[in-house]
Amino acid sequence: MSCIEWPLSLTSTARTFFAAVLAMPVLLSAAPPATLPLQIVDQAGMPLNDAVIEIARPAGDARAPVFRWRNAMAQKNLAFVPGTLIIARGTSVAFPNLDTVRHSIYSFSKPAPFKIDLYGRDQTRTQRFDISGTVALGCNIHDQMRGYIRIVDTPYAARTDGNGLGDIDGLPQGTYTVTVWHPRMKGASGEWRGKIIATPGKRTRIAVPVRPAGAR
């Protein structure tokens, strides 16, 4: 890098000012990643709860996914809590039983078919998930129980709340491929995929096609 020679006529204050101006592009380029707020709605514009949002990694980003929530899905009041859980590929999920009755969890999903034998209140079982995708869960004793585990390879993932809102943390500004999964999504894969321009601090709204509630 060449050295800048200041004219002798410049005062020290002026030199400081021009040095700050020259440094501005460097400072701007070093701005830390921010939070990308998103909202997922259905084709009628209604907020979609429990949708999973995934953003493909930027080139060169190889860090392991680390999420704020625990890798745990409880059985409480004859339901899976939470009903949808996002985990990183290659990690395990704890299944604590908080009910007074016994449960036997199973899945026939291709990424991780498994069966956990009956276990009772205040007992916990664990299961490891090594393949990306969606695992649908059930209970051999209580047919009404349904849950979903979404196994991802990216650190940029979130689950929407009752207002369809989900925030992706640590994502630099740019254009990205986004995948939205929901159990009522139309299509065999249960996924919607598209491009978004990520502008941290500005909420992006995404409309996806889903089947009516209660439809199979």
Features:
216 residues; mainly beta; Immunoglobulin-like; 2 domains; four-stranded antiparallel beta sheet; 1 helix; 38% strand; disordered N terminus
Put the structure in a nutshell:
By secondary structure, the chain is mainly β. The chain has 1 helix and 16 strands.
Q: Would you give an account of this structure?
A:
The chain is mainly beta and 216 residues long. The protein folds into 2 domains: 33-61 and 155-216, Immunoglobulins (Immunoglobulin-like, Sandwich); 66-153, Sandwich (Immunoglobulin-like), CATH 2.60.40. It is 8% helix and 38% strand. It is built from 1 helix and 16 strands. The protein has one helix spanning 12-29; strands spanning 34-41, 52-55, 74-75, 80-81, 84-88, 91-96, 105-107, 114-115, 124-129, 133-139, 146-152, 157-159, 165-171, 174-181, 191-198, 204-207. It has a 5-stranded mixed β-sheet, with no helix packed on it. Strands 12-2-14-15 form a 4-stranded antiparallel β-sheet, with no helix packed on it. The longest helix has 18 residues, at 12-29. The radius of gyration is 24 Å and the shape is globular. Residues 1-6 and 21-31 have low confidence and may be disordered.
